[in-house]
From TrEMBL:
NCBIfam families: GGDEF. This is diguanylate cyclase. Residues 6-121 form the Response regulatory domain. It comes from Pseudoduganella lutea. The modification 4-aspartylphosphate is found at residue 54.
């Protein structure tokens, strides 16, 4: 994992940059900046995992660079270690108060630098893993409802700004209670995971999202997808799930596990609650019409 992590070295001294780059290159992707302005530009464009930041630089000191990093949502969470010739306790305290993760005094020791970098990058990996797990449903490994809510709001705002379509589908496994009653809950969990994997495979474009909304209900979010294309995808997914041929002898619908899907595409002036309610209403219609089908809201 270390090879994938990026470290930005910002120092106005060319020798210091070269020494640190040579130390880090065998294990990390290294970016270099010769002053504060360049450091901010590199950080914004590349979003490194860690910045080794000199304090004393001519155009903008490291303290100001850190203030600006923390003020920008794109760079606010980047870990920063000051590497500085300012060795007074009050200088170190100022850096830590501004949000630095650590402080290394110059002249630096190579072993200490590598140990501190490894420690803080490990912490970055652990934090990101926890953030990832907070957004993942433990059973299906799809996005969970919390993550769906976040992405739904963001994609809704983007669709409004760009005047692009946004489609939403709700998918419910037909007669799932009867499946669990007949085959047992472990089998039900396996079936739900199989449905989730298949659904996830159908939404692979950037921005698309498959999430577990609750129980046996999944939700598909499809930005920049009009009603015709979204409905077509939902119907192909329903057919693919039929072809999994997961036996369901207790189903009144078919001898295999099936799904009902309701969907809607964003209308002018509609908010997220109304769009979700429309998809939910059409899921209800799909169930009332006999299940194992897709019912999509007609567009004006």
């Amino acid at each position: 994992m270390n090879a994938l992590q990026k470290v930005l070295v910002a120092d106005d001294d060319a020798i210091n940059r070269e020494v640190l780059a040579e130390l880090l290159k065998p294990e990390y992707t290294v970016l270099l900046a010769k002053d504060g302005t360049q450091a901010l530009d590199r950080a914004t464009r590349h979003v490194p995992d860690l910045v080794l930041l000199d304090v004393m630089m001519p155009d903008m000191d490291g303290f100001e660079v850190l203030r600006r990093l923390r003020a920008d949502p794109r760079t606010a969470d980047i870990a920063v270690i000051f590497v500085s010739g300012l060795g007074r306790p009050e200088d170190e305290a100022q850096g830590l108060k501004l949000g630095a993760s650590d402080y290394i005094a110059k002249p630096f020791n190579a072993t200490v630098v590598m140990a501190r970098v490894a420690l803080h990058l490990q912490m970055v990996r652990q934090r990101r893993m926890l953030e990832h797990l907070a957004h993942v449903d433990g059973l299906t490994e799809l996005a969970n409802r919390r993550r769906f809510d976040e992405v739904f709001e963001a994609e809704y705002q983007r669709a409004r700004r760009r005047d692009t379509p946004l489609s939403l589908a709700l998918l419910d496994i037909d007669s799932f209670k009867q499946y669990n009653d007949h085959y047992g809950h472990p089998a039900g969990d396996r079936a739900l995971r199989a449905v989730a994997r298949t659904a996830d495979a159908f939404v692979r474009r950037p921005g698309d999202l498959a999430a577990r909304y609750g129980g046996e209900e999944l939700v598909l979010l499809m930005p920049e997808t009009d009603a015709a294309h979204a409905r077509g995808l939902a119907d192909r997914l329903r057919d693919a799930l039929n072809r999994l041929a997961i036996a369901h002898v207790a189903s009144p619908v078919a001898p295999v596990l099936t799904v009902s899907v309701g969907g809607a595409t964003l209308l002018p002036g509609e908010d997220t609650a109304a769009l979700f309610a429309a998809a939910d209403a059409h899921l209800y219609r799909a169930k009332q019409a006999g299940r194992n089908r897709v019912v999509w809201r007609a567009t004006p």
